[in-house]
Amino acid sequence: MICPCEKKGETSVVDSRPTEDGTAIRRRRLCVCGERFTTFERVQFRELVIVKKNGRKSAFDRDKLSKSIYIALKKRPIDTDTIEKFITKISRSLEELGQSEITSNTVGTMVMDGLKELDPVAYVRFASVYRNFREEKDFVQFVDKLNVIKNK
Questions:
Q1: Distance between CA atoms of residues 21 and 19, nearest Å
Q2: pTM of this structure
Q3: Nearest to residue 58, comparing CAs of 68, 48, 44?
Q4: Quick count: other Cβ atoms within 10 Å of Cβ 58?
Q5: Nearest-CA neighbor of 65 among 104, 28, 27?
Q6: What is the pLDDT of residues 1-44, one digit of tens each?
């Protein structure tokens, strides 16, 4: 494994254990430079391809999904374990669809549905980027629609 600091492959595993949900192995590593870092080993059932709105295709990137979710949940009272379980749940759900090509709309909808339950503020944050609000009125309409649904 290549050290993220030294960019060299001279590392050793210090500790290895399964994650809480049993879907990955967490390994603590030590580089010869003295830097410690964590890696995860996960089962990948199939290669997933994401089909973007413009028709372009790219390989599913769990890290990209993770970054967008962490940004939406930034400074929210949700612990890291809960976030990681949520990301794993989304990844597993995509794999369980049984399709090798999945639209970005499907991924976005799954994330939004999950965030709606997990944290309403993160839901609105994610939606503002995912729905690509161009003007203030777009954002206000979205929040007003949420309030109508919530008050029913």
A1: 6
A2: 0.68
A3: 48
A4: 11
A5: 104
A6: 888 888 877 889 999 998 777 778 989 999 988 899 988 887 76
Ordered strands of the 24-31 beta sheet: 11-18, 24-31, 36-42
SS3 81: helix
Residue by residue, DSSP assigns 83-139 as HHHHHHHHHHHHHHT--SEEEHHHHHHHHHHHHHHH-HHHHHHHHHHHTT--SHHHH
Q: Specify the pairing of strand 101-103 against strand 49-51.
A: parallel
Instruction: Determine how many CB atoms are found less than 10 A away from the CB of residue 111.
Output: 23
Tell me the one-letter amino acid at 152: K
Position of tokens 């979205």? 142
Cross-strand bridge partners of residue 50: 58, 102
Distance CA 68, CA 107 (A): 12
Domain residue ranges of the chain, discontinuous segments joined by +: 1-43, 46-150
| Cβ-contact 65, 73 below 8 angstroms | no
Q: What percent of the chain has pLDDT over 90?
A: 47
